[in-house]
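Hi V.,

Quick status before I head out on leave. The structure for the redesign project is tokenized and pasted below; the design run finished overnight.
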């Protein structure tokens, strides 16, 4: 499976500490390997065509992604600080998803 990263996602990942970057890359590799079959605890569906990669650790990192034409597109990433997904973060990912499809 092909993976495409939004420019902002690249910048977000590179801004993380070394240990977190390693965890993110490991989780992206799981997405490449398992695609649509990737489930909890690594992936969760959050909207009709939108999923989140879930990276656990010192920082709770989330990267929203979707599948489009046989590839996975990583749309938006953030450090999660509360139980709920912040509305602003979800809206940013949905906006990018709409531009893509």
């Amino acid at each position: 499976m092909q993976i495409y990263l939004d420019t902002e996602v690249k910048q977000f990942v590179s801004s993380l500490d070394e240990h977190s970057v390693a965890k993110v890359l490991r989780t992206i590799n799981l997405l490449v390997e398992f695609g649509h079959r990737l489930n909890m605890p690594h992936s969760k569906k959050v909207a009709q065509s939108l999923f989140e990669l879930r990276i656990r650790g010192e920082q709770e990192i989330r990267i929203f992604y979707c599948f489009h034409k046989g590839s996975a597109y990583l749309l938006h990433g953030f450090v999660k600080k509360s139980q709920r997904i912040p509305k602003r973060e979800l809206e940013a990912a949905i906006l990018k998803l709409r531009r893509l499809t």
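Above is the designed sequence. The mean pLDDT is 94.

G. will cover questions while I'm gone.

Best,
W.
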